[in-house]
Amino acid sequence: MALAPAACRRARRGARARELLACDKVSIQYTVTRVAPLDIKPDLLRIWGRNLRVAGDVDDRFRWTYQQAPEAWDHVFVLAAHEGAPPLHLVGTAGVEVRPFAGGGRELRVALGCNLAVDPTHRTLLPGLQLVRAVRRDTHAEFDLTYNFPNERAQALYARAGYHDLGEVPRYVRVLRHAPYVGRYIGVPWLARPVGAAADLASRARRAIGRRRAARAFQLAWLAVPDRRFDALWENARGDYPIVARRDAAWLRWRYLACPGSCARIAALVERGPAAAVRAYAVVEQLETVAHVRDLFGRRRDLDPLLALLLPELRDRGATSASFRYLGSEVVVGVLRAHGFRVRDARRRVCVDAGAALTEDERRTAMNPTAWHLTEYDEDS
Question: Which of 68, 72, 91, 201 is deepest in the core (most CB within 10 A)?
């Protein structure tokens, strides 16, 4: 009986996978070792340059990851291929960024997997799996948690290596200027501007009361550099989130102001009055007409006035929409929805591994996606 086209494709893929496995086992042997990044910097830059999409120069990326971070791990994993007689050559790498978290009333030492790259001619199943398993084995023993944002092609690899799929990280979008979207939807250009203007007016009217209420107690301040007020904000707000990465002044400066290729700015919700305490903030990077909210943090009750003041200002600065990736608290999701954000896509995923030192209660919390507070701040770049 003839196979259906889909079955034929699956059979061909299965045969190809078996061929690749056979090739891996017979002709090439791979080893994974941990080395100091500076010891193999030229090899790392070569592999990154071939295989990673890096904002800016790869040398800048190296300094940011391994030399400028407030806390950096002193190891990187390298994949070596042995093809017959020596010498071996390095064909892949995987890194780890140290990210201090707060969780369950204590400090957590957390590893973020980063810079996974394998040369194209070695992107078969076994070498990639060997590399990812080596990272998990060591971070499982040395860190409280490890998490990764694998791309679509690598998701199955991480699952096979034993990581838990925490779920999708949706992108929430709020339309700020309706005319461009109306024009694409109705296909009548001359109607787009008046219809869009009417929609903008209705949107502003619905949220005018909330904006005036927020403006009585707060103001929005655009800051070039996070100052000591952000240290106080971190201490005051961290308890609102069961699992959250440290967001004090030093870490914010490194993550955004020192990051190669970043042009982000910080919009702070500041109390009116002499104290001018920072109650919440948003990290915003506007690319063309889209305002990308890279991070959002503060006491959960203060995120509402922050967005009430921020979104109209983004519109006044020329943005047609605001975009924010988030996985975590249902309370925060409710605030986003109240301000008109809607899920546009959810292609990005996050996987996690609970370290050997975690208690059973801490493991259960770590496997609950609503316990986390994950934004683009928590990615490697």
Answer: 91
For the chain, give every domain's residue range. Answer: 25-168, 171-345
Question: Do 351 and 164 meet the contact criterion of CB atoms below 8 Å apart?
Answer: yes
Contacts of 160 (CB under 8 A, 6+ apart): 129
Q: Is 95 exposed, middle or buried (0-12, 13-18, 19+ CB in 10 A)?
A: buried
Instruction: Report whether 336 contacts 319 (CB < 8 A).
Output: no
Residue 108 near residue 102, CB atoms below 8 Å: yes
Tokens for 324, please give them.
């924010």
1: confidence class by pLDDT, cuts 50, 70, 90: very low
Cβ-defined contacts of 294-297 (< 8 Å, 24+): 294/256, 294/264, 294/375, 294/376, 294/377, 295/247, 295/256, 295/375, 295/376, 295/377, 296/324, 296/326, 296/332, 296/375, 297/233, 297/237, 297/244, 297/247, 297/373, 297/375, 297/377
- pLDDT tens sequence across 188-227: 565 656 655 666 566 776 777 888 999 999 999 999 899 9
Cβ-Cβ contacts under 8 Å for 318 (sequence gap 6 or more):
286, 289
Under CATH, which architecture does the 25-168 domain have? 3-Layer(aba) Sandwich (3.40)
The Cα–Cα gap between 365 and 53 comes to 33
Q: How many CB atoms lie within 10 A of CB 227?
A: 13
Q: How far is the C-alpha of 147 from the C-alpha of 98, rounded, in Å?
A: 11
